[in-house]
Specification:
Length: 582
């Protein structure tokens, strides 16, 4: 199995665990025979009381010694097996996480965040537990089953009749119950995905829930998902709850049959009492091993469902791949779209982008303006290869983005996303996400350009102030400016602003544009904006309408030539005048 290949580096631990288990089971199989000797030769022996007592003591010490050896074997087996499983689980979890990090946006959306969390935690743990159990219990049950049958038949062949009747009954019961339970394990994991998704959505969207007083609705939604999980779990557990009692009845009936047959054999002088006692222990071990097989099949069924889900992630081929041979860029800071058309994966009909031809020169500030849903974000997402164009080519620094490695391409690009994502840590740590090697002075300079230095210095610990998860302690404008500083400190050749100044007032935005021109003169800037006031200062403005560039030029040129641009301009300027007059 592809998942179990992660156990290969720890093969020696995986080998030592069953070997140590063989030692433990061997000692367990010796104990009933020694106990039989104590009864036959010690307690019921023909010698005098002293010699019988001596035999009992010596054999008792042998049993104690074998028990200690078996105990050490069991401890060693558990230690080796658990270590191998934990190390394998660690590597598997890292491999799944690494794969998730390399998946494209549409692929992570396909799995959903809640499902990926479940696969990385619960499913990997289920696989890990299965390996730990398998390394020990398969050997234990196999040896007890085979060894027990071999020994009990040597004691008396008639005991084979008991096994011939009881074992098929146990196997049939196991088959019928587990056949119904096995498919439900996968359903349980899917229900757990749903619970995690609801929790994740409510934790991240807590403010929206509270703002719209939708707490009761979300509680009902969680209750439904949680109840579905509970109901499915109960169905599994009810099925499995009937398993052990039935098997125990069969086992106890088998013990009674052994006693009955053994009693007749003892009475007929065909065997001794100690042998009957040993047979009872062996029949118990044999049938207990069958019960253990049932428990292992449960674990196998559960692990199989988890392995299938983990493999689904590992087998996913990233939609954005590195080329076999990289083409080195000779230009610096240029972006070009050539006859680009784009559909989101899984969608058909009208393309999101159509016939896009656009050239951005080094050091230019090009703004992209258009109505909501016209494809602005989709257009800039093609530059760092968050998505690949359906047809046509996107060039960065004169080279097709598909002919550059993703790491090399994105190392030249700084992106400030529409939604500012911050992480728990200090202000400086968040800004250094763009460049871990940035000095304190570089961090401060980036914050000054982003118009963030002033409010940062107002914090109690300025740049060492702790930021809560997702920047919950900051305003929208503060988060945007910190995200801009993070992109600037990267010192990119191309800087993309995806409507990332929407929370800034016009004066702060004007100061930002001025600082960008003064400090980042050689950096190419591609800016998405909703406001005319945000794009008027750009060198060139591309107007998107219905997925196509309907106009391209300076503000002055577009006012003269583009009806769409003029409509946007007058509608926004009129609104602003109305607000000012009000």
């Amino acid at each position: 199995m592809k998942v179990l290949k992660y156990l290969k580096p720890y093969w020696w631990l995986a080998l030592l665990s069953p070997l140590a288990m063989i030692l433990e089971v061997s000692m367990d199989l010796l104990q009933p025979q020694l106990m039989s000797d104590i009864v036959n030769n010690g307690i019921l022996g023909d010698g005098d009381a002293a010699s019988n007592l001596s035999y009992v003591v010596i054999t008792g010490f042998k049993m104690l010694g074998f028990s200690i050896i078996g105990c050490l074997g069991g401890i060693a087996s558990a230690a080796f097996g658990t270590t191998a499983a934990q190390k394998m689980g660690n590597d598997l979890r890292k491999a799944v996480f690494d794969k998730v990090m390399h998946l494209s946006f549409q692929q992570t959306d396909k799995f959903t965040t809640g499902s990926l969390v479940t696969r990385l935690t619960n499913d990997v743990t289920a696989v890990q537990d299965f390996v730990a159990m398998s390394l020990r219990m398969f050997v234990r049950t196999g040896m007890q089953f085979i060894g027990g049958i071999a020994v009990i038949l040597t004691l008396n062949v008639n005991f084979g009749m008991v096994l011939a009747i009881s074992m098929p009954i146990q196997i049939i019961v196991l088959f019928l119950i587990l056949r119904k339970a096995a498919p439900l394990f996968g359903v349980v994991q899917d229900k757990l995905d749903k619970v995690n998704s609801v929790v994740q959505e409510n934790v991240t969207g807590a403010r929206v829930v509270k703002a719209f007083t939708r707490e009761e609705y979300e509680k009902d939604r969680f209750d439904k998902a949680n109840t579905d999980l509970m109901t499915t779990n109960l169905r599994v557990q009810k099925l499995l709850a009937t398993l052990n009692p039935i098997l125990m009845v069969v086992m106890n009936a088998s013990v009674i049959a052994i006693i009955l047959i053994g009693g007749f054999q003892v009475e007929a002088k065909a065997m001794m009492v100690g042998d009957v006692m040993a047979a009872i222990t062996y029949i118990t071990q044999i049938l207990m091993s069958v019960m253990m097989v049932g428990m292992m099949i449960q674990q196998v069924s559960r692990a199989t469902a988890s392995i299938r889900r983990v493999r689904a992630v590992l087998d996913t081929v990233p939609a954005v791949n590195d080329p076999e041979s990289e083409v080195k860029a000779e230009e610096n800071g240029t972006v070009e779209f050539r006859n680009v058309q784009f559909y989101y994966p899984g969608f058909s009909g009208r393309p999101v982008l159509k016939d896009i031809d656009l050239k951005v020169e080094k050091g230019q500030m090009v703004a992209i303006l258009g109505a909501t849903g016209c494809g602005k974000t989709s257009l800039v997402n093609l530059i760092p290869r968050f998505y690949d164009a359906t047809s046509g080519e996107v060039y960065v620094n004169g080279v097709n983005v598909k002919e550059q490695t993703v790491e090399e391409l994105r190392s030249r690009i700084g992106v400030v996303l529409q939604k500012s994502e911050l992480f728990s840590g200090t202000v400086s740590e968040n800004i250094r996400w763009g460049n871990p090697d940035a000095t304190d002075e570089e961090v401060k300079q980036a914050a000054k350009i982003a118009q963030a230095d002033e409010f940062i210095m107002g914090f109690n610990d300025d740049y060492e102030t702790m930021i809560s998860e997702k920047g919950a302690s900051l305003s929208g404008g503060q988060k945007q400016r910190m995200a801009i500083a993070r992109a600037i400190v990267k010192k990119p050749e191309i800087l993309i602003f995806d409507d990332s100044t929407s929370a800034l007032d016009l004066s702060t935005e004007a100061a930002l544009h001025k600082a960008l021109k003064e400090n980042l003169g050689g950096v190419t800037i591609v800016m998405i904006a909703q406001r005319i006031a945000s794009v008027m200062r750009a060198d060139k403005i591309a107007v998107l309408d219905d997925g196509q560039i309907c106009a391209f030029g300076t503000h002055k040129e577009l006012m003269e030539t583009s009806d769409v641009y003029r409509d946007i301009y007058f509608s926004q300027m009129k609104n602003e005048e109305g607000e000012n007059n009000g």
